[in-house]
Design brief:
The chain has 23 helices and 26 strands. By secondary structure, the chain is α/β, with parallel strands linked by helices. A 6-stranded mixed sheet has the order 10-15-14-13-11-12, with helices on both faces. The two termini are about 40 Å apart.
């Protein structure tokens, strides 16, 4: 259906039909209008596998859902630095979506990892916007080229779970465009996703779902997005304002509670009819493009997808330490395998993205299949151990030549809905590690985690292999990696700090209840550590191999890069070791004489190359002039600044192998003191980033994070902060009761309890009508709010509940 026909279809709808089309009809489908020939589009959660809710499905992880391939989550997959691998995974997920009649998958997630404590970091790619954007684009291409739409999320600046549904993210313009919006811009301009998902939080004072500057001025006019904007589930504040701002589709169904408000806004003229028509046009274009395959397709190739999941982990696992212990020799004798996760693997994160795996292979099962001799002792159960369990683990270690010790974060330590509290492994695992290492010093630790962990014990072990969250093929891939059938080649996509106190946002993460100030500005991850010269445990881009690589002959074809031109770079890489391997060559850009504050360097390009022992290849890079640009706060545009630049060829961000300088013709900047290279952000000495310095960048009033008192509660007040009176306490307990009944993010009961309690605590009062599917209608909700404020309202509440209005 072409655009003219779509507009004709829009004009054929009644106003009521248009309003209904712009909201979900249930949790996963758009509204159908059979009499107008408009089908319903079915969606499903992602992004590391398709989660199709199904009451008859196996309740294996996050509640009933149909079996699907659980690929390594994005935290893991990103470490391969391979857009092609991500594209292949996207294509396989699309095939499974079609198999189940799903036309749109809710992914990829491309938010920046501002802090290693972010509760949903395992769903995101990186702390670096270029890497995140290019990998997101690859997923979109792989999925959409195979007939299934995507939803690029969460737009935007959604970096903490604490008060996530009401918090205001206060971020300066430079950081907003160069860090937090850049991956979305790259993915949109490169791959053209069908939809973009607007996030829960506010961005610089306005909810993302009704932020016209964000959704129209930036997303559509600046980035050229032409698809539909869908809200995150329950993110809408005022639906008429959201439609006017450019949010087309409210999800999920809300019992129609917002329809009256939209109709009233249309009648008063507060919502232009053209805004509603445009939303309907965007939704219809999506529906007609993606609803056609929403009937189950023939069976897909499950075994091929499982093999891809194994391969993906083999290419993504990161070898963080090895003194020669690895690879294990099959002839070296019996191995002691210790740790509960060797038998019950943690292979994905907890939350709405959880997948019911079609096939799951533990490390123990894979060892049995491979025929390697071993003895096993769990050593702990969850977050607890006993003297008996420790004794069994010690005995196993003493009677083996080598120890493979599985450690990691349990579901309750990192889960959607709340942020991590610290970087430590569970105390029982640390106790186990000390006991095992004392019994046998030949210890290789295998880590299963969704982000960085503190490693003060690193000196006690001979090898450390980080699988992150390995997907359903974790066991098979881990055996092949440890025994040298596959060579680790992953590189870290986020810096691992020595301690949480060292992180750039330590003094401003998380914040709330009103606002979180992104005081570190552009200095996220390695941009901070490498500029401030701060020590880290493992730097961005780091990863070892069973072989070694030599770099040589970095050449630039241009001495001077002019506007509109292209920089052509080449270098040679040689495998100087005895094993086949793959290296990720990273190019960084350093700008020494900028008029504004800049990081020491930033990732400009990367290339993954496979080499046999002794083999050498020449790699070529083509870098357009615009890739050197950054946001100029004075002009409000991306500019390339004139000056001298250095291209750095590196194995990781702190292992610069080769350098080449070149000149650039471009703009001359004129900036105020706060934004200049001579201002506070041009000479950072630590991670304090004083509020007064940030305020000069932000150039807007900063909110006070004050707890509301009874009588001050409003629609946006989280339920957990409305407990000064009995009514508020009853409301929170009621919300918690239902959350605990229905939230099933994990097999771990503690994770489910924590997620349910956090969800109900952080839930803004405005969500009560939607989350009750209209059982508590707007009039009753208003009376309930007055009751919580001690202003009466009991009679109105009862009347509203009885009359359902």
């Amino acid at each position: 259906m072409n655009d003219t026909q779509l507009w004709q279809k829009v004009q054929s709808l009644t106003t009521a039909q248009k309003v209904a089309l712009c909201r979900g009809t249930n949790a996963w489908q758009t509204a159908s209008i059979p009499e107008k020939g408009i089908p319903s589009l079915r969606m499903a959660d992602g992004p590391h596998g398709v989660r199709v809710e199904d009451a008859a499905g196996h309740k294996q992880n996050g509640g009933p859902s149909k079996p699907a391939t659980c690929f390594p989550p994005q935290v893991t997959l990103a470490c391969a630095f391979s857009p092609q691998l991500v594209k292949d995974v996207g294509a396989a997920i699309a095939e499974e979506c079609l198999h189940y009649g799903v036309g749109l998958i809710l992914g990829p997630g491309t938010n920046i990892k501002r802090s290693p404590l972010g509760g949903r970091n395992f769903e995101y790619y990186s702390e670096d916007p270029l890497l995140a954007g290019r990998l997101a684009a690859a997923f979109i291409e792989g999925t959409q080229e195979n007939g299934v739409g995507t939803s690029l999320k969460h737009f935007a600046v959604n970096s903490q779970e604490c008060f996530r549904m009401s918090i205001n993210a206060a971020v300066d313009e430079r950081a907003l465009f160069d860090i937090y919006l850049r991956p979305f811009e790259i993915a949109i301009k490169t791959a053209r996703p069908d939809t973009v998902m607007a996030s829960y939080n506010r961005v610089n004072g306005e909810y993302a779902t009704q932020n016209r500057r964000l959704l129209t001025d930036i997303l559509r006019l600046r980035f050229g997005f032409g698809g539909a904007v869908v809200s995150d589930w329950g993110a809408i504040d005022e639906r008429a304002a959201a439609l006017a701002a450019g949010c087309d589709l409210e999800m999920p169904a809300s019992g129609g509670v917002s329809d009256k408000a939209v109709l009233a806004a249309l009648k008063s003229g507060a919502l232009p009819t053209t805004a509603l028509d445009t939303a309907c046009f965007n939704i219809l274009r999506l529906v007609y493009r993606r609803a056609a395959p929403c009937a189950p397709q023939p069976a897909c190739n499950w075994q091929a997808h499982h093999a891809l999941a194994v391969q993906a982990l083999e290419k993504s696992a990161v070898l963080l330490k090895n003194d020669g212990m690895l690879p294990l020799a099959p002839s070296a004798g019996r191995v002691a395998i210790i740790g509960q996760m060797a038998d019950e693997p943690r292979y994905q994160g907890s939350g709405s993205s959880v997948v019911n795996p079609k096939q799951l292979v533990s490390f123990l099962a894979a060892m049995k299949t491979a025929g390697h001799p071993f003895v096993y002792a769990p050593g702990h159960r969850g977050t607890k151990t006993t003297p008996k369990m420790l004794a069994a683990a010690v005995a196993a270690a003493q009677n083996a030549q080598q120890v493979v010790l599985f450690l990691g974060l349990p579901d309750a330590f990192e889960c959607e809905g709340y942020d991590r509290q610290h970087l430590d492994l569970p105390a029982c695992q640390l106790k186990l590690l000390s006991a095992v290492q004392a019994a046998n010093p030949n210890v290789c630790v295998v880590l299963c985690c969704g982000g960085p962990v503190a490693t003060p014990w690193l000196g006690k072990v001979r090898a450390l292999l980080c699988l992150h969250l390995g997907g359903q093929g974790l066991g098979t891939a881990a055996v092949r990696l440890l025994y040298g059938q596959a060579n680790p080649s992953g590189k870290l996509t986020e810096s691992w700090p020595l301690a949480i106190e060292d992180t750039p946002c330590y003094h401003s993460f998380p914040m709330g209840p009103c606002e979180v100030a992104y005081r570190e500005s552009i200095y996220v991850g390695y941009r901070y550590y490498n500029t401030a010269g701060a020590p880290v445990q493992f730097p961005f881009g780091f990863g070892l191999s069973y072989t070694s690589f030599a770099y040589s002959a970095l050449r630039l074809a241009e001495e001077t890069l002019a506007p509109g031109g292209t920089l052509h770079a080449s270098l040679r890489v040689k495998n100087t070791g005895a094993a086949p391997g793959e290296e990720v060559v990273q190019l960084y850009l350093a700008h020494e004489d900028s008029a504004t504050y800049q990081p020491a360097h930033q990732l400009l390009a990367f290339h993954r190359v496979a080499l046999q022992p002794g083999q050498e290849k020449e790699l070529s890079f083509t870098i357009p002039y615009a890739e050197l640009s950054f946001y100029d706060v004075a002009s409000g545009e991306d500019v390339v600044e004139a000056g001298h630049y250095t291209l750095q060829a590196a194995s990781h961000s702190r292992d610069i192998r080769l350098c080449a300088g070149f000149a650039v013709q471009g703009a001359t900047l004129r900036l105020d003191a706060a934004h200049s290279a001579h201002g506070p952000y041009g000479n950072i000495q630590g991670n304090t980033f004083p509020t007064k310095d940030f305020a000069a960048l932000y150039q807007k009033p900063l909110q006070e994070n004050r707890l509301p008192q009874k009588g001050e509660y409003g629609r946006h007040t989280p339920l957990g902060l409305m407990t000064d009176g009995a009514a508020g306490r009853v409301l929170l307990r009621t919300a918690r009761f239902f959350a605990r009944r229905f939230i099933r993010f994990s097999q771990d009961a503690e994770a489910n309890r924590l997620a349910a309690d956090a969800t109900s605590y952080y839930l803004p009062f405005k969500n009560v009508p939607m989350n009750t599917d209209g059982i508590v209608p707007p009039r009753a909700a208003a009376a309930l709010l007055r009751l919580c404020n001690g202003q009466g309202g009991l009679g109105s509440l009862l009347a509203g509940l009885l009359l359902r209005r």
